[in-house]
Amino acid sequence: MQLLLIRHALPLRSEPGQGADPDLSEDGRAQVKRLPDGLARFPISRVVSSPQRRAVQTAEPVAAARGLAVDIDDRFAEYDRDLPVYIPIEQIREENPQEWARMAQGHLPSAVDEAAFCARVRAAVDDVVAAAEPQDTVAVFSHGGVINVVLHQILGTRRLLSFPVDYVSVTRLLFSRSGEATVAAVNSTEHVWDLLPRNQRA
Length: 202
Fold this sequence. Notes:
Rossmann fold; 7 helices; 6 strands; Phosphoglycerate kinase; phosphatase activity
């Protein structure tokens, strides 16, 4: 079976006390509009999403275009879901250099239980794969940390956070009938290249 791991689009930044579950920003909604066509070549038979709003709002147009429901799986939530505020990764470097240095070394933020996070992500992926038929393509809408953990577990990377994962990027995994995983593509962004923050700098 084929598993597409799609990172959510660009969200708003939340304010302290609002929690780490913001809606998509205006730029994020523009990114999402590209997804139904960007994923048209894939015969998606199921759509799964993290419960966080930025992931669900990214998944909904893709599911609607195919007449599918969005299945929510809490285990695909990002490591930040219980934190008091959401800060886009691009801003952490300026606002919290200590945490940025930790993440640059491949670790999750200090407030996160890495082992527990990795275990729940692995269980979620295992269950999605087990429920699929060999010919199925399942799209999972999730987060950069989740996608990095999956790649780490398959490839055995030294660092937990090894890959840049852009907004609305597609990481493609193939699973054999025996459950063996192959990474076919990481962070594909051709459908939204011009809308990514790093490509809009003056």
